[in-house]
Specification:
Shape: globular
Radius of gyration: 13 Å
Distance between the termini: 9 Å
Order of helices and strands: EHHEHHH
Oligomer: single chain
Number of strands: 2
Number of helices: 5
Largest sheet: 2 strands, antiparallel
């Protein structure tokens, strides 16, 4: 098995994750610390390729940001945004649990 530190992931494959970050950016009321985490995550996704370990870190950040947005956040979203958040959350779970990634 390859060392995940050296496995590269094309960020185009992380589009669902990126759209979920965008939903949080547009709709969540989060503090400056979480805003900084969100901005840093979006900046990492702007690269063409990142390490698998970075992708997993982004997935964990998404989970933290969704939780920080509050318990009613998902239900308060318009349907399209909720769908994007759900797809990004599913991709985040797959990355963290290593379901078919790398």
């Amino acid at each position: 098995m390859l060392d995940p530190y050296f496995v590269q992931v094309n960020t185009a494959e992380l589009a669902d994750l990126g759209r979920a970050f965008d939903v949080i950016d547009r709709h969540a009321e989060i503090n400056d610390r979480y805003r900084a985490m969100l901005a840093a995550s979006q900046q990492v996704l702007a690269a063409d390729e990142i390490r698998l370990t970075q992708a997993r870190g982004l997935a964990k950040r998404l989970m933290v940001l969704v939780k920080a947005a509050g318990p009613g956040f998902r239900d308060s979203l318009p349907a399209e945004a909720r769908t994007a958040l759900d797809a990004g959350s599913a991709q985040a779970s797959a990355l963290v649990l290593d379901l078919g990634q790398g």
